[in-house]
């Protein structure tokens, strides 16, 4: 196994792209302490300590091995309005969509069941 | 236009079947992502920020209406109703699903299109002058050459695993509209001064990216019949001696730079002398077969000046401005080459909706012998338009939001997708282009400024050609925010030059002001009839740097 890269500062969330659709997905809490993928960034599970981050990384590895996601990695976040928001602008765009097309992507509620469609 | 023969058809269909199989093996887990990635890249499939991206080859930027309609359909059915025309004269879809891509490739094959070699370390889609076959300053049509190279380079076994990607551009005109000096190989058709035969001037080692270089001429007059053997000699020298230990030093430009153009040319000539030319060079019959596809269409005999056009211009100043700015002289009297701007003020440069693609396809079919072109400046061209039809075309384009009169002007900005889409980007490009367009939206002001090429890249890879922009803008990350470095004096034409950095990077909101100050220096300093780039060359960078520093101070 390759040497572990330096982990991003915590708190952090896990994001990836869905293998089939390419859509950005986030690790979130499923039933009975399991993790599942969601398309809604607001639902992303926030890891506040190393144990939780280890759990996210193990879930990422399983997702890559199981061919459900690609390009999975941890992203450091701030909590704004109760939701995790990536600190880096690149990852913020990934949770939103193209800034010149507010009608597209997650910012327009795509793939987010609870969001109003705009 | 070139039409597939049975071999081409079989080759493309076979590739679709192969890729469909590769996708299904990826989905069932037989292929890991590491195994699959090089395979998908060879078929134009990238993973971007929000989704996959599919890059479709438009060979030397030439399309017919059926093909453009098919692209419109794919955009509507499998994407988000639009596509992005690129500086490589290709089209990218930003939102395809991996599961749909085999089907999309099948739909493309139906109209003789594919995504082969639009990525990966191979010879990429060959680009050419978008006015090929129609430009008044053309010595010979570059498309037969480009098509010959496409066929020779497609799945060429020796050149499928090069040290790095390899781009070839061809022009047959005096004015370089294909940026040949910024390509790994640039070919210019020219006449030999003694024999008057058409030959190729061969440049090697041009390229942008993190180490921008202008191509060096390694052969002044290559006989046309020797083209493929000579290209093969270049590729062999590169394939053997190009660096594979460091991807940032792997392009042929680095090899040419490190050993020098003379030594590179010597090695190429030595290889060329050893090659069995006749077995490599294309059969003259095959060359003639290809060339026949590019025979001129059945033009009418028309007066050089259309009275219908002149009358329409006289009664409609907006139309007259559009004609003046967006049309180029045509070889044949009474015709014109019309550039359709994909840079309406405030839109993403190079984006076209499926509806707009259909409008343009209809116009090409009705008014341009069913032919159109994609330009490296991310616009579309109807190459064979009767002057008298321009007014009707303008009206139709206006209804589709495509009648912007800005070709070659300050708002005709080249911009890569940048961080709004691209996983490699370090900053956004599109919003910068939009902000500059808004600032200079006034048509009269744009015309007063005259030809001025702004080119924006969202990272050092320079897909937006910023190094060769009269004004270049490079988006970087600096201390956690987007920062934009401005260069001045680049040139993408036959006078190719790399721009120089004016000063420290700026925040996004300060970029339009900086451009404004640079333009103000030009307007104050220009001589009668002097263009922006000529002015920069004459007065040098100092006055522009001084004005730029005021922006930096104002922003501080």
Q: Any overview of this molecule?
A:
The complex is a heterodimer of chains A (118) and B (556). With 118 residues, chain A is α+β, with helices and mostly antiparallel strands. Helices cover 20% and strands 28% of the residues of chain A. Chain A has one domain. In chain A, a hairpin with a 5-residue loop joins β1 and β2. The termini of chain A are far apart. Chain B is of the alpha+beta class and 556 residues long. In chain B, α7 packs across α8 and α15 packs across α17. The model of chain B has no long low-confidence stretch (mean pLDDT 96). Chain A: This is DUF2849 domain-containing protein. Chain A: InterPro entries: DUF2849 (IPR021270). Chain A: Pfam families: DUF2849 (PF11011).
Mean pLDDT across all residues of chain A, rounded?
91
**CA radius of gyration of chain A:** 14 Å
Summed up, the domain count of chain A is 1
Global structural class of chain A: alpha+beta
Q: Quaternary state, please?
A: heterodimer
Q: In sequence order, what are the helices and strands of chain A, one letter per element?
A: EEEHEEH
Known CATH architecture of the largest domain in chain B: 2-Layer Sandwich
Shape of chain A: globular
